[in-house]
Specification:
It is a single chain. This protein is α/β, with parallel strands linked by helices. The protein has two domains: 203 residues, UDP-n-acetylglucosamine1-carboxyvinyl-transferase, Chain; 214 residues, Enolpyruvate transferase domain (UDP-n-acetylglucosamine1-carboxyvinyl-transferase, Chain, Alpha-beta prism), CATH 3.65.10. Strands 22-23-1-24 form a four-stranded mixed β-sheet. Helix 8 packs parallel to helix 10. It is globular, with a radius of gyration of 21 Å. 52% of the residues are buried. The site of ligand EPZ has 22 residues, from helix 1, helix 5, helix 6 and helix 12. Ligand EPZ binds next to helix 1, helix 5, helix 6 and helix 12.
Length: 426
């Protein structure tokens, strides 16, 4: 397994190109299943999860053609053709490696009247059930059966429009329901739907494919189903979590980074919290400039669904606050086990106490480099950020977690002054 070595203490300055959003790409890719015409996605990030999703689509009989971007963005272009599906089964050996595979369930049952997807199971940050995905599809007339570790959804006569109000805001369940509803007969109303920018990106792509959706960006989506959708060409939105992570890199190293391609509207709450720490955030031509302003001040944050502070930024923000001049209180309201970076940060000298969903972060004057273990995607980035500021050398092990969500991390950080390299254990 690879590891990343960082020699900390360097101030980062320069431009960081922001890639297409992982969590948008993973819900846009399955849209190819909704049409027998070609869907081309541009600005796709070069990430392990995107490649895995391409393999899953191939398994289902979707032909995929990947090429360098031709739309001026930094990402790749993938053209998918699901003219004839060879299978409606997403097998265990693929799903276990990428839980977002569950997002083929809604499109498959909508297009083919059936789908069989291995249950994704839990992951490091929580047990992550899919009950809301299934209840939403049942509201559209799907029959759901759970057996031998698989979920089977059938709708022999096709799906019918229905109403469903999510008891808990769920990004994935909203995505599955939305992708199913666009081909259901009649009207569907989804209440308490997730409003994340990635959902807006999905809805905009579906509209480009001929879907009829009202309430995009709100928590009430009204969809009038169509008998079929057409192909389209659609650009993936920029990754607000990648951009937020690099904003933290500027803050924690006392530097200044221009996040090229980032969109302010997606990141308002992230930047509100960063401004509390004394960081300057300003819009510039083509991006957003994040400049540190002396020692960071503490900032209290509670994660919640969009437009609140995103759970996917909690670990990275904690690393910054570990060096603030005072005590910060972080509350993680979305996932039950998203503090696995805390013991690793403590190995570097951070002073953090976890009580259930709350973390008390007492700022220290400095961190010291150490060997640390990545446990999940965003925790890994929090360790990289700590290493950038720490005195001495930090080795982050199990960086395959990072490769799932951060494209060309070492390259982007080296380009703005970080002393960072990847070593292969193999
Ligand atoms: C998406 O996961 C993201 N992943 C996650 O990003 C992100 O943390 C999460 O949304 C919240 O914003 C992708 O988009 C691929 P949820 P998802 O359904 O859809 C509970 C990253 O780091 N729930 O919004 O799985 C669930 O347990 C990843 O990029 C149910 O109870 O998240 C959680 O407590 C990590 N039943 C809460 O809802 C369900 O059927 C929110 O989960 C579904 C969810």
């Amino acid at each position: 397994m690879d590891r990343i070595i960082i020699r900390g203490g360097r101030t980062l300055k320069g431009q960081v190109p922001i890639s297409g959003a992982k969590n948008a790409a993973l819900t846009l890719l399955p849209c190819a299943l909704l049409t027998d015409e070609k869907l081309t996605l541009t600005n796709l990030p070069r990430l392990a999860d995107v490649d895995s999703f391409g393999h899953l689509l191939n398994e289902l009989g979707v032909s995929t053609k990947v090429q360098r971007g031709t739309d001026g963005s930094i990402g790749r272009e993938m053209t998918m053709d699901a003219k004839s599906l060879a299978s409606t089964v997403a097998p265990y050996d693929i799903v276990r490696k990428m839980r977002a595979s569950i997002l083929v369930l809604g499109p498959l049952v909508a297009r083919a009247g059936e789908a069989k997807v291995s249950l994704p199971g839990g992951c490091a940050i929580g047990n992550r059930p899919i009950d809301l995905h299934l209840k939403a599809l049942e509201a559209l007339g799907a029959q759901i059966e759970l057996a031998a570790g698989y979920v089977k959804a059938t709708a022999p006569g096709g799906l019918t429009g229905g109403r469903y109000s999510f008891p808990v805001v769920s990004v994935g369940a909203t995505e599955n329901a939305l992708m199913a509803a666009v081909l259901a007969k009649g009207e569907t109303v989804l209440d308490n739907a997730a409003r994340e920018p990635e959902i807006v990106d999905l809805a905009n792509c579906l509209v480009a494919m001929g879907a009829e959706i009202d309430g995009i960006g709100t928590d009430r989506l009204v969809i009038r189903g169509k008998p079929r959708l057409n192909g389209a060409r659609y650009q993936v939105m920029p990754d607000r979590i990648e951009a937020g992570s690099y904003a933290c890199a500027a803050a924690i190293t006392g530097g200044e980074l221009d996040l090229m391609g980032a969109r302010m509207g997606d990141m308002a709450t992230i930047f509100d919290a960063m401004r509390v720490t004394g960081v300057d955030v300003t819009e510039i031509e083509g991006g957003i400039r994040v400049s540190a302003n002396g020692r960071l001040k503490p900032s209290n944050v509670s994660t919640a669904p969009f437009p609140a502070f995103p759970t996917d930024m909690q670990a990275q923000f904690m690393s910054m606050l570990a060096l603030a001049d005072g005590t910060s209180v972080l509350t993680e309201t979305i996932f039950e086990n998203r503090y696995m970076h805390v013991p690793e940060l403590a190995r570097m000298g951070a002073d953090i106490q976890v009580h259930g969903r709350t973390a008390i972060v007492k700022g220290v004057d400095g961190l010291v480099g150490a060997d640390v273990m990545a446990t999940d995607l965003r925790a890994s980035m929090s360790l990289v950020l700590a290493g950038l500021a720490a005195k001495g050398e930090t080795a982050v092990h199990r960086v395959y977690h990072l490769d799932r969500g951060y494209e060309r991390l070492e390259e982007k950080l080296s380009a703005v002054g970080a002393d960072i390299e990847r070593l292969s254990d193999g």
